[in-house]
Amino acid sequence: KFTTIVEENIDMEKMDMSFMMEKMNMSHSTLYRKIKSLTGMSGNELIRKIRLKNSLRLLMEEGHNISEAAYASGFNDLGYFRSCFREEYGMAPSEYIRLRKSQD
């Protein structure tokens, strides 16, 4: 359910655990414990991971440019998006796109 709520509100830049607590009708500690036990991540980490997967899909399948994919996935700061992308995928978004296109 958590993932579905994030995906339905993916472009909402202010999505955080307070928003998720309200949507899921759970306390912060209960929601944190459930997410941590199921994924090994905090709620904010999981939100970020879902957003990054969405941005990757937009870049690769729908042909969006980097800023369009970032903003459509709820990242309002391109520098932060690039930093998160590099941390998750080991390279900058532009490098990832270049690498994928060279493999096709």
What does this 3D model show about the protein?
It contains seven helices and no strands. The chain is mainly α and 104 residues long. The protein has one domain: Homeodomain-like (Arc Repressor Mutant, subunit A, Orthogonal Bundle), CATH 1.10.10.60. Helix 4 (43-60) packs across helix 5. The longest helix has 18 residues, at 43-60. The chain is elongated and about 45 Å long. It starts with a helix and ends with a helix. The mean pLDDT is 89.
Radius of gyration: 15 Å
Kindly identify the CATH topology.
Answer: Arc Repressor Mutant, subunit A
Helical run tally: 7
Look at the structure and give the CATH class.
Mainly Alpha
Task: Give unreliable regions as ranges.
Answer: none
Distance between the termini: 35 Å
Number of strands: 0
Q: Find the CATH superfamily.
A: Homeodomain-like
Secondary-structure element series: HHHHHHH
Topology, please?
Blueprint: H1 2-8, H2 17-24, H3 28-39, H4 43-60, H5 66-72, H6 78-89, H7 93-103
Helix pairs in contact: 4-5
